[in-house]
Design a protein that fits this description.
heterodimer; A: about 325 residues; alpha/beta; seven-stranded parallel sheet; 9 helices; 16 strands; elongated; B: about 250 residues; 6 helices; 13 strands; about 25% helix
Chain lengths: ~325, ~250
């Protein structure tokens, strides 16, 4: 047995989610699934490959550097994964359960004619995993009978491995073709000075109670005082207060920071599914019946427009 | 162009599901069922393509037992022209469902297949991508905007850091995200009309597809409950508690 982890990167740097996925791979390795290889597929991705080789616990790095992989389109990536599995006989194929991993891995699984186990939160053994279903209202333990286990990993359920200290061997894989089915056109990424939601130690999130996007700077001031990321509920995103990439919830980002401060968020099931594994939860809402208080460690029943300036002062 | 839309019957999004006492599954008896919300968005998008003259026919397809005909009728009421039920167990895994859908794709030759990005029961987020692989078609997952431009679809995708635009060659697979559109409600006359629209039933065996499971569910458990919290009186007390009791500031 051996494990192939698909590195998530932007050609220059490795993304943090990769380190959580490698931790899941390390647990598989401890359970007897063999050595860990990290795949860095992209174009001019030497920077990411160098970082990949330094990740603790990784014994080999395979670099596929090709113009057809510039934007890691799944139409070109999935056949690459199949050829790597055929050439090296990997028993486990892992990627982060990010939009990139979710987009790619099922395509590879279908080409390999195996099932995929999505969004695992625990490694039980080399073939058995725990994963949330029904928006996290139940946890299923599933066992795979396939020869190759294709798995996406929920980052918040696995601690990140060290980014340095490893000394993996690096090899190239040049068998890449452009399927010619899809073209990348453009990308508009949100630029923020604040930490990324999925990597932040503290998150301050606003909901419908914020009333408009113009009130979000009140939240941002509090966040900046404590180095927090800013999130939002689906209600706030749907109402157009803030862009969708700020959404925390079952259909947005799944987060589990040290401290989660929910401001003017009622606590719909779909929001709770995205943040209820946070270490400490604070709820600030003027409706004392709001379901968010049922998952909160500390609740403050008050008007957020009074609380936020006070909080900014007190921190 | 024909547009094929896959729909799934799932537990209604507003129902709080409970785990069975024997930990074999969640309780599905006497629970309200509905069309998966992402599938509803998929139907809406297909119907809009027809209304704008891009698509000629919208076909709704569902894999499941007879009960899923209810959701197919809903799809017909929302504007699909005809429906296909692939009669099979309601619990098939995404790979088996993708294979069955691929058999329908081969038969119907749609220019576009639209699916929800995930169903809210299994939360797998796999079927569209798997179907794309099996059909040898390009895929645009998590779509928030779809424009048909000649022999291509221009799709805006919701990705982790923001938005991505791609062009995919038709025929292609699109999976819907929440902001693609706001689905309409079925009007009473349309619900009546839907009863007379054609609904074909095919079995998995007729399609010659092996739907055997690859995964075994060993246990379904309820997640750990959080300890009850405390209500603080004011901001000062909150900050104090976060610093001393919780130690997170």
């Amino acid at each position: 047995m051996s494990i192939l982890v698909i590195a998530e990167h932007d050609n220059n740097t490795l993304k943090a989610a990769t380190l959580n996925t490698v931790q899941a791979a390390a647990e598989l390795k401890n359970a007897g699934a063999g050595e860990i290889t990290l795949l860095v597929a992209g174009e001019n991705c030497g920077g990411a490959a160098e970082q990949a080789a330094a990740v603790a616990g990784v014994s080999a790095v395979v670099v596929a550097d090709n113009a057809a992989l510039a934007h890691q389109l799944p139409e070109n990536m999935a056949p690459l994964l199949v050829s790597l599995c055929q050439a090296s006989g990997y028993s486990h194929l892992l990627a982060a359960a990010t939009t990139t991993g979710k987009n790619l891995l099922p395509r590879a699984a279908a080409l390999l004619d195996v099932a995929q186990i999505s969004d695992i939160t625990e490694v039980v053994s080399t073939d058995t995993f725990v994963r949330p279903v029904y928006a996290g209202n139940a946890l299923a333990t599933v066992q795979s009978s396939d020869a190759i286990k294709v798995i996406t990993v929920r980052g918040t359920a696995f601690a990140a491995v060290e980014a340095t200290g490893g000394a993996a061997t690096v090899s190239r894989h040049d068998d890449v073709t452009d399927a010619g089915l899809a073209r990348f056109i453009s990308e508009e990424m949100s630029v923020s000075e604040r930490p990324e939601l999925t990597a932040a130690r503290i998150i301050v999130s606003g909901g419908r109670g914020m009333q408009s996007g113009e009130n979000f700077p009140m939240l941002e001031k509090v966040a900046d005082k404590i180095g927090a990321a800013v999130g939002a509920s689906r209600a706030a995103v749907d109402a157009g207060f803030v862009p969708n990439d700020m959404q925390v919830g079952q259909t947005g980002k799944i987060v589990a920071p040290e401290l989660y401060i929910a401001v003017g968020i009622s606590g719909a099931i779909q929001h709770l599914a995205g943040m209820k594994d946070s270490n400490v939860i604070v709820a600030i809402n003027k409706d004392e019946e709001a379901p968010i208080f049922r998952v909160a460690d500390y609740g403050l029943v008050a008007d957020l427009f009074d609380v936020l300036p006070e909080l900014e002062q007190a921190l | 162009m024909k547009v094929l839309v896959a729909v799934k019957r799932v537990v209604d999004a507003n129902v709080k599901v409970r785990v069975k006492a024997d930990n074999s599954d969640v309780e599905l008896n006497n629970v309200k069922m509905a069309i998966n919300p992402f599938c509803e968005i998929a139907i809406e998008e297909a119907v809009r393509l027809k209304e704008s003259g891009v698509a000629e026919e919208v076909i709704a397809v569902s894999v499941g037992d007879t009960a899923c005909q209810e959701q197919l009728r809903t799809a017909l009421a929302l504007g699909a022209d005809r429906a296909i039920q692939i009669d099979a167990a309601a619990t098939l895994e995404p790979l088996a469902i993708a294979k069955l859908l691929n058999a329908v794709v081969e038969k119907e030759q749609p220019g576009l297949v639209i699916l929800g990005k995930q169903s809210i029961d299994g939360d797998n987020n796999q079927t569209g991508q798997m179907l794309a692989a099996l059909a040898g078609m390009p895929q645009a997952t998590f779509a928030s905007e779809v424009k048909i431009d000649g022999d291509e679809a221009l799709v805006t995708r919701e990705v982790d850091g923001g938005l991505q635009q791609i062009a995919i060659r038709l025929p292609a697979i699109v999976t819907t995200d929440l902001r693609l559109n706001e689905p309409r409600f079925a009007s009473l006359p349309n619900i009546m009309k839907a009863k007379r629209k054609p609904l074909e039933v095919i079995t998995a065996d007729e399609l010659g597809i092996n739907t055997a499971s690859r995964l075994t569910t060993l246990k379904v458990a309820a997640p750990a409950e959080r300890e009850p919290g405390v209500i603080v009186a004011n901001v000062a007390e909150l900050v104090e508690k976060l610093k001393t009791d919780a130690g997170v500031l």
